[in-house]
Amino acid sequence: MSDLRPNKMASESMTKLVVTMAIPPIFSMFIQAMYNIVDSIFVAKTGMEALTAVSLAFPLQQILVALFVGTGAGISSLISRRLGEGNYEDANKAASHGVVMSFIYSIIMIFAGLFFTNYFVGFFTEDFILQDLTVKYLKIILIFSVFNFIAHAGISILQATGDTMMPMISQLVGAVTNIILDPIMIFGYFGFPAMGVEGAALATIIGQFASFVMIVFMFRKDTAVKVKIKGFRFDRIILKDMYSVAFPAIIMQSLASVMISGLNLILISLSDAAVSVLGIYYKLQSFVFMPVFGIMQAFRAIVGYNFGAKNKDRVISCLKTVLVISSLIMILGTIIFQIFTEPMLRLFDSNEEMMSIGIRALRTISISFIAAAVGIVISAAFQSFGRGTISLVISFARQLLILLPAAYVLARIGGLDLFWYSFIASDILSVCIAVPAIISYLKKIFNSWETI
After folding, report:
1. In angstroms, rounded to a whole number, what is the distance separating the alpha carbons of residues 57 and 313?
2. Are residues 266 and 347 in contact, defined by beta-carbon separation less than 8 angstroms?
3. E strand or H helix that includes residue 319
4. How far apart are CA 22 and CA 25, in angstroms?
5. Range with the lowest mean pLDDT among 39-43, 330-334, 444-448?
6. Which residues of 292-326 are buried (b: 16+ CB within 10 A; e: fewer)?
7. Chain centroid, CA 411 distance in Å
8. Minimal CA–CA distance to 290: which of 3, 31, 15?
9. CB of 39 closer than 8 Å to CB of 315
10. 3 CB contacts (<8 Å, ≥6 apart)?
């Protein structure tokens, strides 16, 4: 059994706890959002084809994100719940399983990078130049993904224990490394060859390696849970508990890839520039959404711990606090997208067609930000409870049952002008599903606690 100090997640003032635990991941997510945008800004300066190539690569990159974010949610949820129960042995096993599974994912991605990127890219475009640029970018990202997977597993483990500072440092090191290397490797400064989109991909990989090194270094110190690879054996119960959250979360995140691929297919029939605008939107909105996702990292740990400890009042208090903070961030994001639309688009050397499409797109979609915040918090809450399937159902309804059909129908009726309103419809309707679901579940689970 591990010798742990009393956990602050059990007793500290909720507002103070949420803010102090959330600030490090918010900051690291903000930095990551910045380097995503910087990456696209530099790529855009090499030509619109390069920017479109990165936009086309985005859905497949989302598969990587789905794997490490989804598995991270499973790791974090299980560890925090077991710590809340006082079951330190299973918390250690969950951490070890998370690292091993992340390595297995990287092997799969190497295979995909070597043999499937041409097929994937060819599905979207027959333009040889665009295909070549996209394939080159994707192969590098996929083949060297092991550093990203292991680093994110370590980050999720630390966050589950209530440590959000060390993960922030790791992500910050990776992001800053990427930002510094981007112009050097894309344009060929200081003796490096000008590598274009391949340089952007290599800068990303080196940044991920830097983050990986920091995480390995942190785990050599005394941590609340231990990763034990020597003599590792799979535990069926641990895998089942971890993937009861992780698998739905992976599918849920993968839906984003399917959704964006579907949106790209609709848009590319209308305008290549519209595909680039959608890619720009996802880069820009990360400035707003990444801080909220940073809060969710703290939120899942706090709620998971107190759910495991059967502390009803702190579960409710955390849920309310995070809903308020996330909504305030989204309100600010909406204001920024409404007022500073044109300057944001100019960052990407947008031509007049992209400006015309982009101004309407960004202003329209941003109306849905507040509703999106409510959906994100409720989804994270279900993951914290170990009920990942409910999160999956809500996400599936939003992205595939509502957004894609609405986008297709509105594009057929009114072209690009109406297409962007599908985002508003999907977020509002999905919240109408999520809110009754969380209220019903909490009533049921709290009643069961009172009868024990």
Report:
1. 44
2. no
3. helix 312-339
4. 6
5. 39-43
6. bbbbbbbbbbbbbbbbbbebeebbebbbebbbebb
7. 27
8. 31
9. no
10. none
What are 46's two structure tokens? 């090499």
Tokens of 441: 């579940």
Spatial CB neighbours of 229, under 8 Å, sequence gap ≥ 6: 96, 99, 100
CA-to-CA distance for 76 and 322, rounded, in angstroms? 18
Give the tens place of pLDDT for each residue, 296-338: 878 888 888 888 778 888 888 899 999 999 999 999 999 999 9
Q: Which of 46, 93, 377 is CA-nearest to residue 226? A: 93
Confidence of residue 2 (pLDDT cuts 50, 70, 90): very low
What is the phi/psi pair of residue 125, to 5°?
-150, 145
206, 155, 199: which is closest to 178 by C-alpha?
A: 206
For residue range 358-374, list pLDDT tens digits in order.
899 999 999 999 999 99
What mean pLDDT value characterizes the chain?
83
Q: Determine the Cα–Cα distance for residues 251 and 396; give it in Å rounded to an integer.
A: 9
Angle at 154 between CA 387 and CA 73, to 5 degrees: 15
Q: Are 68 and 155 in contact (CB under 8 A)?
A: no
Going by C-alpha positions, the residue among 4, 322, 385 that lies closest to residue 163 is 4
- Alpha-carbon distance of 160 to 404, in angstroms, equals 34
* Residue 9: closest CA among 25, 27, 21: 21
Rounded to whole angstroms, the Cα distance separating 283 from 27 reads 17
Q: Using the structure block, give the residue that is written with the tokens 């295979």.
A: 111
DSSP structure class, residue 4: -
Which residue type sits at 51? L
Per-residue tokens: 259: 């959704």
On whether the CB atoms of residues 408 and 348 are closer than 8 A, the answer is: no
Dump the DSSP string for 107-145: HHHHHHHHHTHHHHHHTT---HHHHHHHHHHHHHHHHTT
**Residue whose tokens read 């742990």:** 4
Give the predicted TM-score (pTM) of the model: 0.68
Reading the block at residue 422, the tokens are 């599908």
Place of tokens 């641990």: 238
First-to-last alpha carbon distance for the chain, in angstroms, is: 26
Q: Which residues contact 178 (CB under 8 A, 6 or more apart)?
A: 35, 39, 203, 204, 206, 207, 208
Separation of alpha carbons 205 and 187, rounded Å: 17
**C-alpha angle with apex 71: 67 to 76, nearest 5 degrees?**
150
Distance CA 310, CA 306 (A): 6
User: What is the distance between the alpha carbons of residues 337 and 315, in angstroms, rounded to a whole number?
Assistant: 33
For residues 200 and 43, the answer to whether their CB atoms sit within 8 Å is yes
* Phi, psi for residue 195 in degrees, rounded to 5: -110, -5
